[in-house]
């Protein structure tokens, strides 16, 4: 799942740095994730994982790092995080 | 609604009314000369209104956003420029109160702010960022215990009158434009070189000139939280609610003038309802809409207050954006109605029904953070966020 998230982040995150240089826990906002790009990323994630983000996950924390995105998506797909 | 009821009961409103009386006496001159509303701000200090938001344990009164919005509205009925200076000061104060607690320097500053009634200004806009305050070009340089910053600040309202400026920048020289911090620079720690002169249609007394800001201060004056969190959790709601409070005040005073005009006309021709009366009823309806909208936002902010996740959520941001859009557009409609009611007496300056200043000042509402930018931001969020369709939340 993390590999797929990294792919989508590279495509939609519009980050000024390469996704490979970021650890799973690196702060994406610090890396330059804008609110517009985070919405584009959310749409791509919804499409890729066939999920819909509910209101309680639409906040900064859910998209603060690759690990946070993984947890958010996993909570929706019911997949184990490991 | 408890907060609102409490606001109404407190003597704070009495103090605000006394300051408003001073502001009203000088409003026309402040507008004509495009000068800082010195007398009104001195009166706010005398009434100890500048420190009301500081928590009680730091020497303030711990005033709620509802109470502060009420003061904004009372001042707005008297002099919009004075009210806007007060609102902007309180928005900066909310950044300190919400995000400076626990930081020794900032707690000490809040204590002084309450004791000495210090006035805070802010510098969030910068040449080259295209109006998006969540982007910075300038970066703060931390050199041991000292931080330095140079910013091409295209607007710093009442900069030369303020006791401190809260200023945004990138967190480090290699930070992304959206990775920002906010720093408090005190008077004496910076120089201002004027670049733009504030000569505008309305809100002339806010003195929102442009400057090259150059500051050097102890690094501990940088607020301990990322500006993104400050913006989402305190600035967004406080700006939109307190500005709306000011605008409601401007529209309320315009309405009061129009109503006085209709009543005078009715007394002159007993037995018939004057032609403006129907329009007054329409304006009353619009004024109530604006008020309800602000009260609903206060309730929503109050409910989200202790929940960082909720405060940073898209649903909350959409709701606050909508409050700003609605109040900034509707007040123009209200004042336009009032102008039609008062006719040439409203169009002329220097009559009890004059509305020129109200109309000019109110036009700033849809420009300060452009409504188009806000609508663009909301429309992005609505790509994923569902509209709240419940009546009671």
Automatic annotation (TrEMBL), chain A:
InterPro entries registered for this protein in UniProt: ACP-like_sf (IPR036736), PP-bd_ACP (IPR009081)
Domain Carrier: 1-77
Gene3D superfamilies: ACP-like (1.10.1200.10)
PROSITE patterns (UniProt xref): CARRIER
Protein name: Acyl carrier protein
Source organism (scientific name): Pannonibacter tanglangensis
TrEMBL record, chain B:
Cofactor(s) essential for the protein: FAD
Record bears the keyword Flavoprotein: yes
GO molecular function, one term: flavin adenine dinucleotide binding
Keywords for this protein: FAD, Flavoprotein
Residue stretches making up the Acyl-CoA dehydrogenase/oxidase N-terminal domain: 14-101
Coiled coil: none
Gene3D superfamilies: Acyl-CoA dehydrogenase/oxidase, N-terminal domain (1.10.540.10), Butyryl-CoA Dehydrogenase, subunit A, domain 2 (2.40.110.10), Butyryl-CoA Dehydrogenase, subunit A, domain 3 (1.20.140.10)
Domain Acyl-CoA dehydrogenase/oxidase C-terminal: 232-367
Family membership noted in the UniProt record: Belongs to the acyl-CoA dehydrogenase family.
Protein name: Acyl-CoA dehydrogenase
């Amino acid at each position: 799942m993390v590999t797929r998230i990294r792919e989508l982040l590279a495509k939609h995150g519009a980050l000024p740095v390469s996704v490979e240089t970021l650890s799973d826990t690196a702060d994406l906002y610090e890396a330059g994730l804008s609110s517009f790009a985070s919405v584009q990323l959310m749409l791509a994630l919804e499409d890729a994982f066939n999920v819909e983000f509910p209101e309680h996950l639409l906040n900064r924390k859910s998209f603060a790092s690759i690990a946070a995105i993984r947890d958010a998506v996993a909570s929706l797909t019911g997949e184990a995080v490991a | 609604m408890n907060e609102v009821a409490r606001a109404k009961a407190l003597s704070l409103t009495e103090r605000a009314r006394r300051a408003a009386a001073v502001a009203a006496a000088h409003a026309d001159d402040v507008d004509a000369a495009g000068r800082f509303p010195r007398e009104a701000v001195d009166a706010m200090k005398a009434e100890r209104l500048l420190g009301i938001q500081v928590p009680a344990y730091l020497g303030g009164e711990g005033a709620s956003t509802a109470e502060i919005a009420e003061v904004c509205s009372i001042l707005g009925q008297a002099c919009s420029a004075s009210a806007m200076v007060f609102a902007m000061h309180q928005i900066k104060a909310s950044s300190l109160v919400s995000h400076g607690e626990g930081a020794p320097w900032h707690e000490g500053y809040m204590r002084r702010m309450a004791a000495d009634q210090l006035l805070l200004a802010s510098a969030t806009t910068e040449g080259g960022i295209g109006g998006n305050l969540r982007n910075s070009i300038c970066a703060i340089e931390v050199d041991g215990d000292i931080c330095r910053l140079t910013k091409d600040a295209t607007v710093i309202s009442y900069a030369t009158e303020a006791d401190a400026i809260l200023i945004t920048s990138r967190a480090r020289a290699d930070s992304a434009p959206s990775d920002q911090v906010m720093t408090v620079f005190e008077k004496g720690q910076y120089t201002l070189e004027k670049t733009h002169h504030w000569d505008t249609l309305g809100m002339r007394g806010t003195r929102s000139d442009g400057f090259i800001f150059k500051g050097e201060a102890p690094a501990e004056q940088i607020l301990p939280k990322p500006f993104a969190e400050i913006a989402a959790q305190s600035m967004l709601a406080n700006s939109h609610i307190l500005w709306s409070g000011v605008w409601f005040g401007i529209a309320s005073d315009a309405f009061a003038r129009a109503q006085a005009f209709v009543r005078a006309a009715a007394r002159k021709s007993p037995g018939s309802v004057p032609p403006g009366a129907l329009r007054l009823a329409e304006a009353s309806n619009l004024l109530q809409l604006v008020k309800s909208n602000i009260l609903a936002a206060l309730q929503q902010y109050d409910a989200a207050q202790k929940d960082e996740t909720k405060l940073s959520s898209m649903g909350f941001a959409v709701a606050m954006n909508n409050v700003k859009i609605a109040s900034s557009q509707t007040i123009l409609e209200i004042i336009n109605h009032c102008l039609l009611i008062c006719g040439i007496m409203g169009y002329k300056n220097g009559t009890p029904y004059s509305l020129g200043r109200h109309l000019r000042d109110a036009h700033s509402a849809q420009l300060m953070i452009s409504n188009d930018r806000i609508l663009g931001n909301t429309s992005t969020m609505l790509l994923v966020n569902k509209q709240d369709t419940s009546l009671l939340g």
